[in-house]
Amino acid sequence: MAPKTCDIRSLPNETLLNVFLHATAGIFPTLLEHPFPNLSLQTELERIANAPLLALSRVCSRWHTIAVGTSTLWSHLHMHGITERALEQTIALLTNHLERSQNAPLLVLFKGETFDRHPPHPRIFNLLAQYSHRWETAHFICSLKGVDTSALRGRLPCLKYFTVACEVRLQHCKPVMPLDFLGTAPCLTRIVAPAPSLLHSETLRTIRGQVNNLSLIVLPLHDELHTILRLASELPDAAQLYLCFDLDPSILPQNWDPALLLPSITSSLKVLGCRVCSAGVQPAPHQLNSVLSQLFDSLTLPNLEGLDLGYEAYPKFTLSWAPAQHSALLGLCDRSAWGRCLKTLRVSQVRVSEQQLMEILSLLGLLEGLEVGDLPSDEEMPLVTDSLLRAMIRENSGQQIQLVPRLAHLVCISRLAFTPKLFSDFVVSRLTTAGAKFQVSLYPAANSDPDVFVESTVHVMLRQLAVDNSCFSYLSGKRHRWMKL
Predict the structure, then answer these.
(1) What 3-state class would DSSP assign to 95?
(2) How does strand 369-373 pair with strand 344-346?
């Protein structure tokens, strides 16, 4: 008997929807990927048109009905400012896309043709604004200066996540970008924006009452940081606050005073991120050390579960770690009793010494997730070494582990400066407790040869260990995946 074949047109609707969703997902770039891959006018027009989905819709009338008539397949709209070169065609495609989304909540991403100052064309922005009552997520990777945003006021009933980001010097010059319309978004819980646009607007009241995930691009100025610290004490319980400091000397005022005289603040933050985002010139170490030291000295965070320290320009730059910063962080840890609350620590982009790291870890008895890394340069001493592994190993089944006894996930960016067998023994020792599960994510340090890394002894040993022990999971690859906070 001849084998039965299945006509592709007879696939169930659920299967077709999964196929169509996969097709549409392939044309959406990563939010902050710069530039967009395969950037060209034709590519970006096809992105707005949802070209892969339209191609599938031509198979038969049933496929066409599902592809064109399913609103969720048209609910993501990613567009680039280059399409303004074909403005009439862009408006037509955008109108069709928005109409086909029917009543579905929208994710809107607009990226300016130039990152520094290119806002959306007024006709494009006004068309998007007509559908703002359905915006659930809106990302504008461009400047909004000069854009009339008045049409958004009172028309953002579904908005939960909003981003506006552009070249830093534009974010802090007067007048600031108008974001008062966010004050009328009742469901808003997450914002990424330059600090001045929020701290001196009606939106501040909304942030205090409902936003639980706030990312601010900050100049370390006295008034600005004072306002941010007061805001940190007023955010909802278990909020996440990410501060990205720009210390580019071309941005800072000529008379900038690093003595910020910050007030003492207690906050119920769940997650704190402190990063440096000066993409051009690396700031003077004493400036960076002063800002972070004063920030740590001013805070008490008794409910903190996640801490992220790093540098946006990594691996080009790494975060320096002076004795003053280290001492201030230890004081914050002791004052906030992090030994009873902190569960995740990310310091893979910090130029911390092994001794400093071990001193920090000795205070974090409940830590479950740790991300550490060797610095890219071979001239720097490696951080992940045999001595660090020995301090985290249980040599006998009844022995108490010296450091982070509850560690369940280690992310390690490494130059492989440790003994492979010792790393394997470290993993095995973490699995000796009945029912214990452990995960390792191991990635090559920047400037390392990824092919050599993949063929390394420790990589082979850990892969085999994951096969032999179902309680152990191992992730690796040429590209680093960040630990989630």
Answers:
(1) helix
(2) parallel
